[in-house]
Write a structure and sequence with these properties.
The complex is a heterodimer of chains A (255) and B (245).
Chain A lengths: L2 H16 L1 H21 L6 H34 L2 H6 L5 H33 L7 H26 L3 H16 L1 H10 L3 H13 L15 H6 L1 H25 L3
Chain B lengths: L1 H26 L3 H4 L13 H9 L3 H17 L28 H11 L4 H14 L3 H14 L5 H13 L3 H12 L6 H13 L3 H14 L3 H17 L6
Helix pairs in contact in B: 3-4, 4-5, 5-6, 5-7, 6-7, 6-8, 6-10, 7-8, 8-9, 9-10, 10-11, 11-12
Chain lengths: 255, 245
């Protein structure tokens, strides 16, 4: 990656950490993690399990909300305010700008997820949890999901006519991505070949978050181990494909 | 120049799509290996929206946890007893735990374990309550068999099934022996330790019962079980003419 793209990345990280929405969501996440102690106390013998799951869910959900909102407005806002022209009149390739912005967003999200995970681990250890490496794997693959959905949100923000439609479409795809196994099940059950083909096409095009959702398989480490490499490859390839498509659209934009 | 970069982009997308397809077909397990029952097998009860929402947002474990808390709340709430006509409630003996009808107990348990089939403690807790507290061994067996089917590697289910079988035949010694093995498992629910203590107590084997309730007091994370254990320890210490530890 070039120095110019790295500068854009650094600028984006600083810009996002100064963003009020991003900070508010971070504070909200910390409060939510603290509140999870209260909910976990209702879990009887399974307090640690509830605390673990609730924390992982909070971590992912807050990263999702802040990531998608930031991704949708990342370039769209600068395009609407025409400030992007000031950047692009310099000797900077559009690809460098786009990749730099995306990596900046991803870095900021990973940093905030890391802070929340550290806080969560603190709570877990405080309640007597024993270290389990599958926690890190689950957080890493949550980050993989966030990487895929933010790249998709970035692509959709350049494709859709407004940020609202891009947001709606992204959240819809997030839900559909978790529904993929059921989608395939439905496709195999129906007796109409055309419908089956359509559902299967949707199944293959929509990001399959079930493969990256390792926080739902914390006890089945044997199941997890079998597809770690494949899932990581899947996340990276899907992200690269989305960024490539986004770049294709971005090149055609006139400022 | 622009045409060349478009071609490169297209090639990258195609390459990524092929890589994703290869990864999907070679590395990823099929739905059966994910071990999640299809949606039509979920037992929603009154909480369909919450359960479906949780599953669709990729929060199966958390949804199962919330269903688990609702199961504990259901089982922890006193039922309407024989005196309900006069507005009264059924208050069980403070030394016994979990008796009553709780007709929807199996449904609540199945709701939890079908959202997250790897929630072993939920099967064990449910089966223990059904077989020993609610005296519905057939439902306990049904729940355990579902556990065996979805988690063939979990050894605990076979011990519980055997213990229920011996209990039905009145073979106390074999039940106690199997439950002794079961409570050595760190994941064993406090309820099962409580059941073993009560089993010894009912058979008049007070020293063994005292040992088990002391263990329950040490291990239980739920304050309610600690209180129950404390009451039992006091009662048994009096019977055995021992000082209260």
């Amino acid at each position: 990656m070039t120095a110019k793209a790295l500068s854009i990345t650094r600028y984006t990280v600083i810009q996002l950490f100064r963003n009020k929405l991003f900070s508010i969501l971070g504070i909200f996440g910390c409060i939510l993690l603290g509140a999870s102690l209260l909910i976990a106390s209702l879990g009887g013998d399974q307090q640690l399990r509830v605390l673990l799951d609730l924390g992982l869910a909070c971590l992912e959900f807050l990263a999702l909300v802040s990531g998608v909102f930031a991704a949708v407005t990342l370039i769209l806002e600068e395009m609407e305010a025409r400030t992007i022209a000031l950047v692009l009149i310099r000797p900077l390739h559009r690809a460098e700008y786009l990749v730099g912005r995306f990596l900046g967003l991803l870095t900021a999200l990973l940093l905030s997820m890391g802070i929340m995970a550290a806080l969560h681990l603190g709570l877990l250890f405080f309640k007597g949890w024993r270290w389990d490496a599958s926690y890190l794997v689950a957080v890493a693959f949550s980050a993989g999901k966030i990487m895929v959905i933010t790249s998709l949100a970035l692509f959709l923000s350049l494709f859709a006519t407004s940020s609202i439609s891009a947001l709606t479409l992204t959240f819809f795809l997030w839900v559909l991505g978790h529904f993929s196994q059921e989608l395939k099940f439905l496709a195999n059950k129906t007796g109409y070949p055309a419908f089956t083909a359509l559902v299967k096409a949707i199944y293959y095009v929509v990001p399959n978050f079930a493969y990256l959702n390792l926080k739902d398989h914390l006890e089945g480490t044997g199941v997890m181990g079998r597809w770690l490499g494949g899932a990581a490859l899947y996340a990276v390839c899907y992200t690269v494909a989305c960024l490539t498509l986004a770049l294709g659209l971005f090149r055609r934009k006139e400022f | 120049m622009e045409q060349r970069s478009s071609m490169i982009q297209l090639a990258m997308v195609v390459a990524c799509t092929i890589a994703v397809g290869v990864a999907a077909s070679l590395r990823f397990p099929q739905p059966a290996a994910l071990n999640f029952p299809p949606l039509n097998e979920l037992r929603f009860g009154d909480h369909a929206l919450m359960d479906v929402g949780g599953v669709f947002l990729g929060l199966r474990r958390l949804t199962a946890d919330l269903a688990w808390i609702q199961l504990l709340l259901y089982y922890g709430t006193p039922e309407e007893g024989p005196g309900e006509e006069s507005g009264g409630h059924h208050h069980p003996d403070p030394l016994s735990y979990g008796g009553g009808r709780y007709e929807r107990f199996l449904e609540y348990c199945q709701r939890v374990v079908r959202i997250d089939p790897s929630f072993i403690t939920a099967y064990l807790y449910g089966a223990g309550a059904l077989a020993w507290n609610l005296k519905r061994s057939d439902e306990a067996v049904e729940l355990l068999q579902e556990g065996v089917q979805r988690n063939p590697q979990a050894w605990q289910f076979h011990k519980y099934l055997a213990a229920i079988g011996f209990k039905q035949r009145g073979e106390f010694a074999k039940v106690a022996s199997l439950l002794e093995e079961a409570i050595r498992d760190p994941a064993c629910p406090s309820m099962v330790i409580n059941i073993l203590g009560n089993t010894y107590k009912d058979e008049g084997r007070y020293p063994e019962a005292l040992r088990v309730f002391l263990e329950l007091y040490d291990r239980a994370k739920d304050p309610e079980y600690q209180t129950t254990a404390l009451k039992q320890i006091r009662w048994l210490s009096e019977r055995l003419h021992l000082p209260f530890p």
